[in-house]
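Honest question from a wet-lab person: if I give you the sequences of every part of a complex, can you actually get the arrangement of the whole thing, not just the pieces? Trying it with mine:
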Amino acid sequence: MNQKKKLDLNRREMPKQPPHIRRRNFKEVAMGYTVELAVGEAERCLQCKKPLCVQGCPVEINIPGFIKCIANKDFAEAIRIIKKTNCLPAVCGRVCPQEEQCEISCILIKKGAPIAIGRLERFAAEWEASQEHIEIPKIPPPTGKKVAVVGSGPAGITVAGNLAMLGHDVTMYEALHEAGGVLTYGIPEFRLPKKIVRREIDYIKKMGVKLITNFVVGKTKTVDQLINNYDALFIATGAGLPWFMNIPGENLNGVYSANEYLTRMNLMKGFNFPKSSTPIKKHNRVAVVGGGNVAMDCARTAARLGAEEVYIIYRRSKKELPARLEEVENAEEEGVIFKLLTLPIRLIGDENGWLKEIECLRMKLGEPDQSGRRRPIKIEGSEFIMPMDACIIAIGNSPNPIIPNTTADLEVGKWRNIIADEKTGKTSKDKVWAGGDIVTGAATVILAMGAGRIAALSINEYLSGEK
Amino acid sequence: MFEVIEIEMIVPNLHLLTVRAPDIAEQIKPGQFVIVRSDEESERIPLSVADWDRKEGTITIIFMEVGVSTQKMASLKQGEYIPTVVGPLGKPSEIEKFGTVVCIGGCYGIGSIFPTIKAFHEKGNNVISIMEARSLNLLYWKDKIKPFCSSLFTITRDGSDGDIGHIKHIVEILHKNGIKPDRIIANGCTFMIYKASKDLSIFNVPIIVSLNPIMIDGTGMCGVCRVTVDGKMRFACVDGPDFDGRLVDWEELLTRRKQYVDEEAFLVHNSGCGGI
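Yes, you can. This is the full assembly:
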């Protein structure tokens, strides 16, 4: 129907807090579409017969379907469609890299104006949250099958939600005192407000998922002990020990891993010190090493804590930054300074053991390496010193070591990641599936959810076939 | 939520806390720790477990009041509930038949070394225990520990109980009594276990210390508890907390522990064991 209309290439921008204001507050940066903006954007969708966007989505949301509903102002149906395959729309609408998944597949990208699928998904979720009554899907009668989900991050929530929706009895275990995994301890408030995470957790609890916090599977009880009480078990324990650069000075005071810095800030509410008792330092000059989304989160957090100068130190060029373009732009607008083609080689402390300076080396780009990105090459003799009060190392982490170290018959890879079948999430151990960062190493929220989705299908198949 | 079964100040500034945590009580082994939050705003505090009762499903902690969060813990009442007791975390201590094992406890470490003393005794070791405190009124659990050791010595700085002296004096006690340790274990504040690792290295046996760096999650995620042991980066929460004190980079650990001294406005200085 839309083909008859003239193509609308006006991709609707989402209102944001102005940079000079938001760089000093913790409120969400992007403020979401209004009804008018959402409907306008939704009306641009060509409603392709063979929608490529759906193929680009790891959880295969019926994208044209929900967008059509928004265009028709049937927002209730829009969110119903999304929730058929995605139990975390408010999260995904915010933190998914749509530009390399659904939106890159949109036919309108050729015209430079793909449909803003993420913003529309977010709009639908927010519309629902603003309603008094949140619809809980009809759940079939109990199957009598019990499933344990270990870890309550994106992969765990997805498996728990999808299996609860099918009538299975799901218990989700969380090691920390609050559920949500990286959504809670890692991603900052200004990008993903914690009340949204809590809302999504409440939603799956209303679907019947039981949540047990303060329980470290592998320690409080081992997988081998737990498995006797369940028909199936899904492991999604996510991130483990942070990587460091293996250069001198990394244990100086004022040097943090991204995990520590973000956990102090988000899970432990360091911004609220002294009301919350866990402190976070307010440093003046802060360098963040790394170029991913986590590095951007750290840099923007440091700015909000009052830092005068915040640097991203990255060894390749801007083109190779693994972070989402949107996050890079946000960081730039907030005054974060990008020291590109730069490699820290030594962290230098003062007489009291606090970081004082970072010695760096300039880099140039050579031939592409295995990852397809151009390999950074050191420029000999180009050393220089940057005075610095704090350094946050955001170069990734290994998978969490606790379950691999305490579980028999569980095949692990060279990074001590759990080996799981790509198509089913099944591990080498009887009745045990796994997915998310514990399998792949550090990746994105949506990839973890995609892994959760296929594991849930496989677990359900197994439970349904089991006598 | 976890019910407070018992809370009591056993000596000045040191408190005993027993909570109902049946899963932990069932699983815990000597040398492991738990993380406690006494209310929703509190820090996650790593604390060694000093005793447990598997039948009752309880665990007991001895902790020192040093900051806001531990002050709040100290003011808990019996029958109250606290939001977080999680564990058991860390690797259990290595309990083998080594021969003569010297166990040194100071401050809260007198409590936390008790399960280790008992386990070494049950494995058939000759266990020598040494308790160290500033003064007699800071010693506790002597009667509880005694049955599991062939000898128990006390050292106080003022001589109010046992010998006068500090950690260095242990060398003298061992020599005087003809004790040749096959293994030394030390639990207590960082300064005390650092001194023990230095002063007792002349015996050329492992000096196993339970390290207590700053921690947040305690489950191998945040990396704040990193320590340098034998030149390598190790994480106390998952690789420890036990390490051979002869190989620990103590200067770094002592410096790292001071990172938030300014913020811990209520920190009680000079608590009798170096105060670090």
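Two things worth pointing out. Chain B touches chain A at residues 23-24, 27, 37, 41-44, 67-69, 83-89, 216-217, 219-224, 226-228, 233, 235, 238, 249, 251-252, 255-256, 258-260, 263-265 (CB under 8 Å). Confidence is low (pLDDT under 50) at residues 266-276 of chain B.
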